[in-house]
Write a structure and sequence with these properties.
With 1109 residues, this protein is an alpha+beta fold. Among the domains are: 174 residues, Methylamine Dehydrogenase, Chain H, CATH 2.130.10; 105 residues; 55 residues, no CATH class; 183 residues, Ribonuclease H-like superfamily/Ribonuclease H (Nucleotidyltransferase, domain 5), CATH 3.30.420. 19% of the residues lie in helices and 27% in strands. It has 23 helices and 53 strands. The strands form 13 sheets. Strands 35, 38, 39, 40, 41, 42, 43, 44 and 45 form a nine-stranded mixed sheet that branches. Strands 18, 19, 20, 21, 22 and 23 form a six-stranded antiparallel sheet that branches. Strands 1-30-29-28 form a four-stranded antiparallel sheet, with no helix packed on it. β18 and β19 form a beta hairpin. It starts with a strand and ends in a 14-residue tail after the last strand. The C terminus is likely disordered.
Length: 1109
């Protein structure tokens, strides 16, 4: 500090309003790159001053007035970071906000400092048990750190030096934020603290006589390098404020509240430079500029003092230019005449606050609009004034939905799991991965969460689950987080996936599963056969053993059926019906359709009618003339018919004792009276109708048709739905028993009673405001086991969320949010009878057929592109990914004399118009799939799929590169024991990168493939050669060194084969014979496909730069 230092400027601190009283300065700091001094007040306002005159530069509100004063200000090259007690705000130096963070755990923040990442990250703490690590570039909380200390001051040196409210200073690791060292600096409180280079200096209070706080007459010093305290430096006036000099590493400036200033050398405390600040009041704050050439003081009369040398005063050594507002040009003189337009006269300047001024509040803007369901919009009716309809949104009339705070993960009540790529990175950095996996399983909220059946609100387990998409697509989502069982769930990003619940219940019905698999094994190739698709799906669910599956092919086939749209069964054609009504309609349609599909192969068999049909005749009688006639009334499903007495029951009245068996009896016999036409009376009369039952099905499929509150109350009666029922058909009458009545009839053995077991049900779930109603399945997996277990094994199937539940929970219903939609019973004697002989009876004739490539003519419709939502903060979020379709399936022989020769090479005739052929990755062009000009073997998707499915169940192994995505597009699940994937064989987990087929072929085989486009046969042959190389390396014991060499070469070439010159020649694969008729066809003898052969089956192999890689 030079001898000519003196007060250069003194200004009053601006009050918070025009007529407001002055307020003290709550925090103050110098800018690190511009000639600015930043200050904060008690009302959340930040004000900056420019240059030696302290000219007012900017002023803005960082947080609302009720949130209290500005606690601290930090500056980096991007802007200004302002700390409040409940929030953190960042703004540019000119005032506009960059981001604002407010968190529920921010209760009393006091201080912040930069971390080991420099000025791009801060650590915020206070009188609370949580510290926050905030990324300044993104404006996001990246970590929450628990702490047992209450911090009031933080400074960054070698470590983060943090002063607590008890007089202790903690040294915090700037990387992991753990406390390394604690130092008791003062007996009571710490008034001020600074840290720079190797020293920490503090001044504070001690309790004196009478329990009063008094400033300690000394300065405490701590040596960070030696981790020890140094001798205190005496300061008789009472040390209130202290700062380390920014340019002299051992120099400290100490000030008293009376304005006495000492410049002390910590290594030679006997020499000091003493100054006195001219103030009429006490000092409240002190700060030194980064240049060391100026000092700012704040006093109790709300003034700011600037000290320094008149000739050398500057805030920073090399200041960047401060940007000022563009000066306004003086307005030209206007001659006022009768023709002068009024809008040429500017508005006058006002000193008083106008009534139209906006309040000085930090307010969130741009609340997302309310999302209205397509089915809800379709149900509205158009009028002159707008549209109206029934309120089905789960909100009260005129209630505004809070879309600003609508958090999807919070609404579901379950945190989203980490992406698989994140887990892979963490496991690669963790020496012992097994313990971490186990810890993740134990910490899984699905395993810890219990369900209370009597709970009136919807538990998180039943709420909507959503797939999150990373840059790697759906394959990066951790479905295993939601399912720890051996039973597979179904994905939901597919159109018409509301059917998942019904499909799961049918899968756990052994009789339906058996007949679907048996039919799939026949020669049926009809591309609209839903029974085949059910068989394919059931086989996939069984083989997946808990892995995620999808019903893509089945649901796509459903959408292609012309009857599905008019019946209101398609989500892409909304008709306003609720999901439960759509599912019940789908149940009726699906049962009728699979019976028809079964008869296409076995027209004379009555097996399906025996399994599903309730054989009956309907007796119709005119009450007036007593004339009667009958007509067939058999059906494959039963709609429940509730007694009229329920409608006459008031809310406060007790329901009459009605059992499920009584309702089922009245629903099956269906004795009704209604108005109808009597041909004998030739007029409308009262007509009585009643069914005469002849036989009952092996599988009872029941639509509950719950439509009012009384029926909901009935179903919510504890024990209403039994796990077993007994049925007797006698002289056309249907009798149903349950509970003790059933046990009594079984003991007597007088009547031939048929016992049914409850297989499962599809449930309609209404989670409440903020979430859409959806459907889940509840199935008793015990009845679908090869051997019957001792107890029931009820499982909840909430799409891809699967977990076991108790019997009490499975059979408990809540009128407000959980009601059954479809219920399925099956003959008890058919439980656990799984037919596995279908594999021995697979019709393999399809493998020998040579399909004429010009016999199929198809029309095209568009494949869906990705559905992307743009959030209010500008972040793109994928709601539904792009839909890929199978375009070509090629299978070559894996061994024998014909090794490498293709015996399946089918191009798929696609019904939908194609958004993008991805020719550079797939090798497919428009001409390849156009049946009018294509030279290839065009077949329906069903034919290509069934060929691969037959090979799968014959035991063939599938060899290829990157088969996971291929199998996903095909919608087939291949067990790991039947997959040889070269992308996994040549992979080091520690490198977190998988290698492309083209790079491996270049490095290991010295071959260049995929030069211009892709060819699936070429890719299959290359994968086969790579597998032979792998076996050679493994047998020689050099696999690990070779993998290291491959990755080393990959880094040198950016994991791509070097580019060749324009004269690069490419041989056509497969080699084209002279005779076009000798092109690859299906084999002429099944013996060529052996169970230990290798097949490379795929649509196409994603290669370099592919969006599927």
């Amino acid at each position: 500090m030079d001898g000519d230092w003196d007060e250069v400027a003194r200004i009053p601190f601006p009050p918070p309003g025009v007529h407001a009283m002055p307020t003290p300065v709550t925090t103050m700091t110098f800018d690190t790159s511009q000639e600015l001094l930043w200050t904060g007040n008690d009302y959340g306002r930040v004000t900056s001053f420019y240059g030696r005159e302290l000219q007012r530069y900017t002023s803005f509100k960082a947080h609302t007035t009720p949130d209290g004063p500005v606690r601290q200000i930090l500056v980096n090259d991007k802007g200004v970071i302002v700390l409040g007690s409940r929030d953190v705000h960042m703004a540019s130096r000119k005032g506009p906000p960059i981001w604002h963070i407010r968190h529920d755990d921010m209760k009393d923040l006091r201080c912040m400092t930069f971390t080991s990442k420099g000025t791009s990250e801060i650590l915020a703490a206070g009188s609370q048990d949580t510290m926050f690590v905030i990324d300044l570039a993104k404006g996001e909380i990246v970590k929450q750190v628990p702490t047992a200390h209450s911090y009031k001051i933080m400074k960054k040196s070698r470590y983060i030096c943090a002063a607590t409210k008890t007089g202790t200073v903690n040294l915090i690791d700037p990387i992991n934020f753990s406390v390394i060292k604690s130092w008791n600096a003062h007996a009571a409180l710490i008034s001020d603290m600074d840290a720079r280079n190797d020293f920490i200096v503090t001044c504070g209070y001690s309790l004196r006589q009478g329990q009063n706080y008094m400033l300690d007459p000394f300065l405490n010093v701590f040596d960070i390098k030696k981790m020890s305290s140094m001798s205190p430096i005496p300061f008789p006036a009472g040390a209130a404020f202290v700062r380390m000099h920014p340019r002299m590493s051992t120099t400290s400036i100490v000030m008293s509240q009376g304005g006495q200033m000492h410049v002390v050398d910590l290594m030679n405390p006997n020499t000091s430079n003493v100054r006195q600040a001219n103030t009429m009041s006490y000092l409240t704050m002190f700060e030194i500029a980064p240049s060391g050439e100026s000092v700012a003081l704040a006093d109790g009369e709300f003034n700011i003092h600037l000290w320094g040398s008149h000739s050398k005063l500057r805030f920073v050594d090399y200041a960047s230019q401060t940007e000022f507002a563009t000066p306004e040009d003086p307005l030209p003189t206007t001659e006022w005449t009768a023709d002068t337009p009024l809008n040429s006269i500017g508005m006058p300047y006002y000193r008083e606050v106008l009534a139209s001024t906006w309040p000085e509040l930090v307010a969130d803007v741009g609340a997302p609009p309310t999302k209205l369901d397509a089915q809800f919009l379709a149900s509205l009716k158009q009028t002159e004034f707008g549209m109206y309809g029934r309120n089905t949104r789960g909100l009260r009339r005129n209630q505004v939905e809070d879309t600003r705070n609508l958090d999807k993960s919070g609404a579901s009540g379950m945190p989203a799991p980490k992406f698989l790529s994140e887990k892979a990175r963490e496991s690669a950095n963790t020496p012992i991965s097994g313990s971490n996996d186990k810890a993740d399983d134990l910490a899984n909220p699905l395993m810890l969460m219990e369900i209370d059946p009597s709970r009136a609100e919807c538990p998180p387990m039943y709420r909507n689950v959503e797939i999150k998409y990373s840059k790697f697509g759906v394959d990066d989502f951790d479905f295993g987080f939601y399912n720890k069982t051996q039973y597979s769930g179904l994905e939901i990003h597919i159109a018409n996936s509301y059917a998942n619940s019904l499909l799961q219940v049918m899968h756990f019905t052994p009789l339906i599963r058996n007949i679907a698999l048996q039919h799939a094994a026949t020669a049926c190739v009809a591309d609209t056969c839903l029974l085949c698709e059910l068989g394919f799906l059931f086989d996939m669910l069984q083989k997946a053993d808990g892995s995620i599956c999808q019903a893509t092919n089945l649901l796509k086939t459903l959408s292609h059926l012309p009857q599905a749209g008019p019946l209101g069964l398609l989500e892409e054609e909304p008709n306003g019906s609720p999901l439960t009504a759509m599912l019940q309609g789908l149940t009726r349609f699906l049962l009728d359709k699979i019976v028809q599909d079964y008869k296409t192969i076995q027209p004379n068999s009555g097996l399906m009618e025996q399994m599903l049909a309730t054989s009956a005749t309907n007796s119709i009688r005119c009450i007036n003339c007593r004339s009667e006639y009958t007509r067939p009334a058999s059906g494959f499903y039963n709609d429940l018919l509730y007694p009229q007495s329920l409608k006459n029951t008031g809310r406060g009245q007790k329901l009459p004792r009605i059992s499920f068996s009584q309702i089922l009896k009245s629903s099956v016999e269906r004795e009704t009276t209604s108005k109808g036409w009597c041909s004998k009376c030739q007029r409308y009369q009262n007509i009585a109708a009643r069914k005469t039952i002849h036989s009952i099905p092996a599988v009872f499929v029941i639509n509950t048709l719950i439509s009012n509150a009384e029926q909901r109350r009935l179903w919510s009666t504890p024990g209403f739905l039994p796990e077993e029922i007994g049925v007797i058909v006698d002289h056309g009458h249907f009798f149903c028993y349950e509970g003790e009545d059933l046990k009594l009839h079984l003991q007597r053995g007088i009547h031939n009673i048929t016992v049914y077991s409850l297989i499962g049900m599809a449930l309609n779930i209404d989670p409440g405001p903020g979430q859409k109603p959806h459907l889940v399945a509840m199935a008793n997996a015990a009845h679908a086991q090869p051997t019957a277990p001792q107890t029931s094994q009820w499982h909840l199937f909430n799409d891809f969320l699967v977990r076991p539940v108790s019997t009490e929970e499975a059979l408990a219903f809540q009128p407000s949010w959980k009601m059954p939609s479809v219920v399925v019973f099956q003959l008890k004697e058919a439980n656990n009878k799984l037919d596995m002989d279908w594999k021995k009876n697979i019709d393999t004739s399809l493998l020998y057929e040579d399909t004429n490539p010009h016999t199929h003519t198809k029309t095209y419709r568009a494949l869906e592109g990705p559905e992307i939502e743009m959030n209010s903060d500008g972040v793109r979020e994928t709601i539904r990914p792009i839909v890929y379709a199978l375009a070509r399936a090629s299978v070559v022989r894996g061994q024998g004399e014909d090794e490498g020769l293709p015996f399946i090479d089918d191009y798929i005739s696609i019904r939908e118009p194609i958004v993008d052929y991805l020719t550079s990755y797939s090798g497919i062009t428009h001409q390849d799939l156009d049946p009018r000009v294509s030279k290839h073997n065009l077949v329906p998707l069903k034919v290509a799929y069934k060929k691969l499915w037959i090979l799968l169940n014959l035991g063939c192994k599938f060899l290829g590169h990157g088969l996971k995505q291929d199998f996903r597009v095909i919608n087939i699940h291949i067990p790991k024991t039947q997959v040889i994937d070269t992308i996994d064989l040549f992979y080091l987990k520690s490198r977190l990168r998988k290698l492309s087929l083209a790079f491996l072929a270049w490095y290991l085989l010295k071959e260049d493939i995929q030069l211009e486009t892709h060819d699936s046969i070429e890719d299959a042959r290359t994968a086969l050669k790579l597998y032979r190389k792998y076996l050679e390396f493994d047998d020689a014991g050099v696999l690990e060194p070779m993998l290291q060499d491959i990755y080393r070469a990959g880094r040198e070439n950016n994991f791509k084969p070097p580019k060749r010159g324009s004269d690069a020649q490419r041989t056509l694969t497969p080699p084209l014979p002279i005779d076009a008729s000798a092109a690859p066809t299906t084999p002429s003898n099944i013996s060529q496909v052996t169970s230990n052969g290798f097949g490379a089956g795929s649509t196409w192999t994603p290669g370099k730069g592919s969006p599927l890689r």
